[in-house]
Amino acid sequence: MFSSNPFAVLSASVSPAVMQTYVVVMIVLVAGGTLLDIVHKKSGRYFFDNWRKVKSNGKHKVGGGQMVSLAVQTAAAEVLTSAEFCNQRRRIAHLLTMYGFLAYMIATFVMVFWYPTPATPTPAILPQLWYLGGLMVCVGGYWFWFFIRVDVAAEGNTPFRVVRADLFILSLLASVTAGLIWAVLQANGSAATSVFLGIYLIATTVLFGSVPWSKFSHMFYKPAAALQKRVEEANETRRNLPPPADKPATLGDPRELPRHY
Known about the structure:
The protein is mainly alpha-helical. It has a single domain (6-236), classed as Fumarate Reductase Cytochrome B subunit (Up-down Bundle), CATH 1.20.950. The chain is 66% helix and 0% strand.
């Protein structure tokens, strides 16, 4: 089962062209939704205006070589390893979800476009990567949802409390969970296969179609904001804030563990 391409099996009832068109539409929804979000919130204009202000008010000029170094540091720390998270559990859950989602989506794209039918045998590594990525998303996502969220871990709210800010994580978990269940049921010839295929398509459409109203686009904003912060520290503007203390004062002994995130 874990070495079988679920989309190649689906091609017996759904044309590969339809599957490929659906994937393209989802990509267009993400790109269009992100641009709409940028225009509506004017975040792009704010970013570039602030970037010019940082350059003009900086005490030190950041050269091209230093800028490349800062970009590499940003990619290594904030993007690849999520070093901005002080809470290790939150960081691990985030990394599991992020890398699982990337593996899941890349495997989906390759299987749908390069191996859409049984006539083109799928390398076993692709479905295995698809299942592994989906399981990583579920482990990281459900761990975050039930145990790590601020309003659950720090404020004592029920994990079943849902607000609009939860749209991204809930639609992601619904899409991946339904997709995995659909693939397992399809491999076993279950009568409920079409039901979970429908849930999978609905949840996936909500995930990629709700970009202007969810936190999906934050994955594009965060690296840019992290790079800008490093540039501000390098040219000593720091948004007019004082430099961080080397040894911040603590009250009480032993110090109480922080509960904020």
